[in-house]
Design brief:
single chain, about 240 residues, alpha/beta, Nucleotidyltransferase, domain 5, about 35% helix
Length: about 240
């Protein structure tokens, strides 16, 4: 088993290779809006570092959003094209779920929070369960005030993770949210691959053409339908 993972839904894109034993190689990009230049060369770099070739890859995992429209589509299109060329199964997972999984050892509820721009954030809550975390409810989009109100109603300590915290720090702090231990990070391809690995092992996979982008906002979904031809089989929800 060798899983190629691609995560480009935020400015901090990443690529990773994971096998049965764990992470084999990773590459990350800290420069915003250069996803198209990064992904192909990063995949080659990871394969070279691992001493593998494209023919060794057995599955492709990709982030499906929600996130920044352009970056998200670049990663999904690359994952789809690579998987189609190699005749491989795919697994698509939300970046919020990836962030929640990355904080699976937290003793308190985890809120994954991604900057959605336009004064909004994407978020979801994750509770610890045996073996990991489980999402509580749906993926959400709204203002930072909306999320702050939800956090105030929890009635216990929470851990907030994601790149949506810093742009909205004042709103969250004014609501009494303790941000001393928050984690500012993007969904990572290595975490995506580790979360997807059991799905590949259980053969809970999809065909490349079945990849579905998660937009949450109507305007992004409308753009997705208008640009649908750029990602064969892509749809919005």
């Amino acid at each position: 088993m060798l899983i190629l993972a691609v995560e480009t839904s935020t400015p901090r894109s990443s690529v990773a290779l994971v096998d049965r034993d764990g992470i084999v190689a990773t590459a990350g990009l800290g420069v915003p809006r250069r996803h198209g230049e990064f992904v192909g060369s990063a995949v080659k770099f990871c394969l070279d570092q691992a001493g593998r070739s494209a023919d060794d890859v057995t599955g492709v995992a990709t982030g499906t959003g929600p996130g920044l429209y352009t970056g998200l589509r670049v990663g999904m299109a690359f994952a789809q094209a690579f998987a189609q060329a190699q005749r491989l199964p795919v697994v698509g997972l939300s970046g919020l779920d990836v962030l929640g999984h990355s904080m699976r050892h937290s003793d308190c509820p985890v809120y994954a929070m991604i900057d959605a721009r336009r004064g909004q954030v994407f978020w979801a809550r994750y509770d610890r369960v045996p073996g990991g975390v489980q999402r509580a409810g749906e993926l959400r989009v709204g203002s930072a005030d909306d999320l702050a109100a939800e956090l105030m109603s929890v009635g216990s300590d929470v851990l907030v993770v994601g790149d949506g915290v810093d742009p909205n720090r004042d709103v969250l702090a004014d609501a009494g949210i303790d941000l001393d231990h928050h984690t500012d990070r993007a969904p990572l391809a290595s975490d995506l691959a580790m979360l997807a690995r059991p799905l590949f092992m259980r053969e809970e996979t999809s065909r490349p053409g079945e990849l579905t982008a998660i937009y949450l906002r109507r305007v992004d979904a409308q753009i997705g339908w208008q640009e649908r031809g750029r990602l064969q089989g892509g749809s919005a929800r």
